[in-house]
Design a protein that fits this description.
alpha/beta; 5-stranded parallel sheet; 10 helices; about 50% helix
Length: about 230
């Protein structure tokens, strides 16, 4: 995960739209989906404001500093039993504290999935260095995304129609470092890039499995030059 301050300050609308698209794929209808916003990070607040203007209606907020939520000495959230009871109906968690303690462990999310009877959970990492243990991604029925994932998904995986193909292709490559690096490694010319890009988009638009799409995204990310 590597997001800059500029990225965090300029993308809340796009990220919110990506959250909605992914939520439809995970939950189907989202009119009854419940969202919890947890953390004191500004970007988390900006995204939640955009989500409220769009499709989601059921929100809960915990906007206090991390010390009111997480016991650093015990390395666990304060009153786990109450947390599981309070959030057992929550489908989407947007999490971001200014401090980077891993407050959401694999064990905690495993317990939350159990009380939800394995109903899916959509976890969104909203800060750097982040508050979610990456190992939670190994759990079934758990969908973990950071803000960079969501921004890339918005610009790359959700194109539904193309007008003036070459202009759109160049625009997509320019703002998608992963895809651009992949093309550079293979030394593709413009025509080859266009053919690959069109076929990839046709394939992904027919694919409903969001985890599979994320694996494709991770494949392109492996070509990124750091």
């Amino acid at each position: 995960m590597s997001q800059s301050k500029d990225f965090f300050s300029s993308k809340p609308k796009q990220i919110s739209k990506a959250i909605i698209k992914i939520s439809h794929q995970i939950f189907g209808k989202i009119d009854k989906v419940e969202v919890a916003v947890i953390g004191d990070e500004e970007m988390v607040e900006d995204i939640s404001e955009n989500l409220k203007k769009l499709s989601f209606k059921k929100f809960s907020f915990f906007d206090q500093p991390i010390d009111a939520f997480f016991d650093k000495k015990l390395k666990k959230i304060i009153n786990e039993e109450k947390f599981l009871e309070d959030y057992k109906r929550t489908d989407i968690f947007l999490i971001g504290f200014k401090k980077g303690e891993k407050v959401f462990s694999k064990n905690l999310i495993k317990k939350l999935l159990a009380v939800r009877r394995q109903k899916p959970i959509f976890l969104i990492e909203g800060a750097l260095p982040g508050n979610i243990d990456p190992l939670v991604a190994k759990l079934s029925n758990l969908f973990l995304f950071d803000l960079n994932d969501l921004e890339q998904f918005f610009s790359f995986f959700n194109q539904e129609k193309f007008i003036e193909k070459n202009n759109i292709l160049l625009e997509e490559i320019e703002k998608n470092e992963n895809l651009n690096s992949f093309f550079n490694k293979l030394n593709f010319n413009l025509t080859q890039k266009q053919i690959f890009f069109d076929n990839l988009n046709s394939f992904l638009l027919k694919e409903d499995d969001i985890n599979f799409k994320k694996k494709i995204y991770n494949f392109f990310e492996s070509f990124k030059e750091y």
